[in-house]
Amino acid sequence: QTARAAVPKASVRRMGSHAKKDWVADRSGFLPRHPDYPGVEGYLRYAMPEDGELSLGIFTMYVVLVSGYITYSNYVEATKPKPAPKRAMYEEIVEKPPASSVPTMEEDADAWAAFINGGDENVKAYIEAMTGEPQA
């Protein structure tokens, strides 16, 4: 029996727990704490005793933090003063010359169809009149 008394008993430890330090002051009156878990985990386990509840709580905390950061950064971006839009100078405004000999569909659809079916030169003239760029 003396040999058995000399061997210390193995303590039961749970995953994620650590050995309790003797020099740490006990603050049991601060918040309600689960008696089986030391440290911060005791406070968390008092409110969320199951593993699934604890993981859901941690996940919810991250969702709230990331959502808050995104909302705050969008708010900061929206409240920044934006530069005034660039306005075109008078010299940069180019007026398109009016198309004189090209009929439009709104005015006379039959004349427009006859003009387009008249050949490649008429199609090039129509495109040039609409875009203002000479066609080769």
Question: How would you describe this protein?
Answer:
By secondary structure, the chain is mainly alpha-helical. Helices cover 46% and strands 0% of the residues. It has 5 helices and no strands. The protein has helices spanning 2-6, 39-47, 51-79, 109-116, 120-131. It starts with a helix and ends in a 5-residue tail after the last helix. The model is unreliable at 21-25 (pLDDT under 50).
The profile of the biggest β sheet is: none
Portion of residues in helices?
Answer: 40-55%
The total count of strands amounts to: 0
Give unreliable regions as ranges: 21-25
Class based on secondary structure composition and strand pairing: mainly alpha
Computed over alpha carbons, the radius of gyration is 41 Å
Q: Summarize the helix and strand pattern as letters.
A: HHHHH
Q: Bin the strand percentage.
A: under 5%
Shape, principal axes of CA atoms: rod-shaped
Helix tally?
5
* Gap from first CA to last CA: 111 Å
Nearest-integer average pLDDT: 75
